[in-house]
Amino acid sequence: MYTALILDDEMIAVEGVQRAIQWEALGVGNVLPAYCVEDAKAILLDRQVHILIADIEMPSEENGLDLLAWVKRHSPDTVTLIMTCHADFQYAQQAIQLGCIDYLLKPLPYRELESSIRRAIDKIRHNDLTLDNERYRKLWIQHQTVIIERFWNDIIEHTIPSRMDAIKEEARHRGIPFAEHMNFVPVLIRLQKWHKPLNRRESSIMMYALKNAAQEVFLQRRHWGGHIIRVGPHSLLAILIAREGTSEKSLVDCCNEYIEACKAFFYCDLSCYIGNAVRGDQLLGEYGRLNQMDRDNVIYLNKALLRHERPSRNADRQLPDFGRWSGMLQDRKWEKLRLELSDYFARLKSSPDIDADFIRRFQHDFLQMIYSYLHLKGIQAHRFISDGRLGERMEEAGRSVHDLEVWAGECVDKAMDFVEDTESEANVIRKCIKYIRQNLGEELTREHVANHVYLNPDYLNRIFKKETGLSIHDYITKERLEKAKELLRKTNMPISAIATEVGYGSFSHFSQLFKKYTDLNPKDYRRLG
Questions:
Q1: CA distances from 9 to 30, 41, 48 (A)
Q2: What is the pLDDT of residues 183-209, one digit of tens each?
Q3: 345 and 439 assigned to the same domain
Q4: Structure confidence by residue, pLDDT tens digits, 283-332
Q5: Looking at residue 86, what is its pLDDT?
Q6: Distance between CA atoms of 238 and 420, rounded to whole angstroms?
Q7: Contact 269, 195 (CB under 8 A)
């Protein structure tokens, strides 16, 4: 039921309108009186009023036309009628400009007033229908994206068979534009690593942000038609409509732009795998081949790869000499083993033919070596593998050579810790070395290291030099300069920042030491390296 408001400074005129009209028959359930403009405004602010019938002439400063102007700003859905004693064209013109649908002369002909109220109600119903239609239109647009994404997900998940007739029928049924001759370029976007630890909820939110960024870079900036869909907890699939003139270079450039933006703003590493242009019924097969590319990619981070650039799989690649490494473990030549591990992984990272199968074989043989060493020391394997973090690292190690290197180093460290604990010998030198490496950027002296292992500095220095061939001071210097060399080779950090990073507050002192040990100043070392 509708609500009507009657404004007139004459009470008898208001009551006459209230009694003369069959309001309920018109669908009006509430008829409210007002005798001044202020009262009318208060009612309009307090509740929804569908119809306003207002007299123009009012004794106050504001008249009925002033109220119409106010209603147009504050209650635009209210339909207004004007009544007056004067047939003034200027009044009528102003009322119409303010949205009034009728202009009635007093004394009111009630049949004419009833007819005007019917027109007002028809206008309200028309406005409501228009509003509903607009609401449904917006709702459809909002959900159309979901419907289209579900369509492509159903193709990828094989819910819709990979037959052209089945795909066309499903597209027609869901109201999605699709033509048999259309070709699509799939681009698999695979998150490789967050730079900061995230819980499941945070990761899901960030994946949503990555999807929005992909829509902006691939669809909005480049004006490529298509859709971005989620195809896993860490994967997106861009399905781009293939257009004549779209080159491989433009696809690679677009992917690189996206990768760099994600590194900068979302603190993550990801790679893009660009497929060939295929028909809708070939999309599932091409998506499978891109997934295989991702599984085989254990070398590259933050790279756009074309499908025909997929590295050849070389299952016969030579594994390291685990027997030699096992001997180093047993002889406690841990530093030498760590150096060999570092050299070996440096070579792996430059080998484009390393794949996930090779990583798995390396892991199995490496674990066998560790377990054999622990067995010789009387340590059961379950104590080693029950370390939760090491188990997580093992799963991560299958993703890339870098993760494999981190995992292997942690395995060696953990194995040595177990042996030390089992043999009840505090490996003081190893603890010192670990402490030094963890604190290169801090103030670090012989006294700091001695305090860490609760020993006299002079005594510690003697046994440290006996084991390593270097005094604690010289060892700290060596480790700092090795770290500096690594940063100079692998990063673009300013040299002054590298000096601070490795514990030298004085840039000139750092430069002098660096040249003394390497025969090159830091700038020349970076240039030649």
A1: 20, 14, 22
A2: 999 999 999 989 988 988 999 999 999
A3: yes
A4: 999 999 999 999 888 888 899 999 877 655 554 567 899 999 999 988 88
A5: 67
A6: 52
A7: yes
Q: Are residues 244 and 331 in the same domain?
A: no
* Whether residues 353 and 470 fall in one domain: yes
Q: Which residues of 306-329 are buried (b: 16+ CB within 10 A; e: fewer)?
A: bbeebbeeeeeeeebeeeebbebb
For residue 192, the 8-state DSSP code is E
Q: Is residue 484 in a domain?
A: no
Number of domains forming the structure of the chain = 3
Q: Where are the alpha helices (DSSP H) in 157-247?
A: 164-174, 200-214
Contact 80, 99 (CB under 8 A): yes
pLDDT(256) > 90:
yes
pTM of the model: 0.51
Assigned token pair, 437: 């490496």
A 10 A CB-CB count for 288 gives: 11
Give a yes or no: residue 135 inside a domain.
no
Chosen domain end from 110, 128, 146 = 128
What value does the mean pLDDT take over residues 141-161?
Answer: 85
Q: What's the half-sphere exposure (Cβ side, CA atoms, 13 Å) at 186? A: 28
Question: How much is the pLDDT for 315?
Answer: 46
Tokens of 31: 């008829």
Q: Is residue 170 part of a domain?
A: no
What three-state secondary structure class fits 305? strand
Closest CA to 281 of 182, 189, 174: 182
Is residue 290 located within the same domain as residue 331?
no
Q: Using CA atoms in the order 64, 70, 72, 78, what is the torsion angle rounded to 10 degrees?
A: -70
Pair 8, 75 in one domain:
yes
Q: Does 464 lie in the same domain as 374?
A: yes
| Poorest-pLDDT segment among 39-53, 64-78, 277-291, 424-438 | 424-438
CATH number of the domain within which 304 lies: 3.30.70.270
Pick the last residue of a domain from 282, 309, 336: 309
Enter the DSSP assignment of 33: E
pLDDT of 399 over the 90 cut: no
Predicted local distance difference test score (pLDDT) of residue 426: 47
CB 304 within 8 A of CB 265: no
341 and 456 co-located in one domain: yes
Domain that holds residue 266: 181-309
Q: Give CA separation, 152 vs 156, 170, 182, 184, 219, in Å.
A: 6, 11, 14, 12, 16
CA dist., res. 379 & res. 383, Å (int): 8
Residue 348 scores a pLDDT above 70:
yes
